Amino acid sequence: MSDGVEWGVHVCVLLAGLPEDAALPAGKLAEYHGVPAAYLAKHLQALAGAGVLQTVKGARGGYRLARPAAQITVLDVVEAIDGDESAFRCGEIRRRGPMAMPAREYTKPCGIHQAFMRADEAWRSELALSTIADLLVGVLSDVPRPTLEKGARWLQESAR
């Protein structure tokens, strides 16, 4: 999983705390998370292209969630940034070496391939159960009060 996925989830959680009509520019989102603006902008565009974020033009421009946080899953963010392909790449190594046989002899995936596919399916199923709204609730309950207050002041000054 890329750094962009972590950044994207954090951005979505932050945006979930904004009023519906507010937005944050890419530069402010990068500043808040202490990440390179150009790299984050690429991921923000991917999230917008996938319908997770909405771009807002004009003086009050920036990004906001494209739909309610309870309707955006962590899997939505992962797939918007890293795609929907499995992290496992089968190289059909069993077709090499002294035991190699022609491809037609291998009619189904091997047990190793199957194990990785089951793990990927379980991982994706779990991510599909967690929404951005769920994560926001967790963040708000886990972060110390002074940090929340500091973050709220920053959001008030930065949101458009």
What is the structure about, briefly put?
The chain is mainly alpha-helical and 160 residues long. It has a domain at 3-85 and 131-158: Winged helix-like DNA-binding domain superfamily/Winged helix DNA-binding domain (Arc Repressor Mutant, subunit A, Orthogonal Bundle), CATH 1.10.10.10. 55% of the residues lie in helices and 5% in strands.
Description of the molecule:
By secondary structure, this protein is mainly α. Helix 1 packs across helix 3, helix 1 (3-16) crosses helix 6 and helix 2 crosses helix 3 (37-49). It has helices spanning 3-16, 26-33, 37-49, 74-82, 111-129, 132-142, 145-158; strands spanning 53-56, 62-65. The protein has a two-stranded antiparallel sheet. A hairpin with a 5-residue loop joins strand 1 and strand 2. 21% of the residues are buried. The chain has a domain at 3-85 and 131-158: Arc Repressor Mutant, subunit A (Orthogonal Bundle), CATH 1.10.10.10.
Terminal CA distance reads 31 Å
CATH architecture of the domain at 3-85 and 131-158: Orthogonal Bundle
Q: What is the radius of gyration computed over CA atoms, rounded to a whole number of angstroms?
A: 20 Å
Say what the CATH topology of the domain at 3-85 and 131-158 is: Arc Repressor Mutant, subunit A
Number of helices: 7
Name the overall outline: elongated
Please tally the β strands and state the result.
2
**String of helices and strands:** HHHEEHHHH
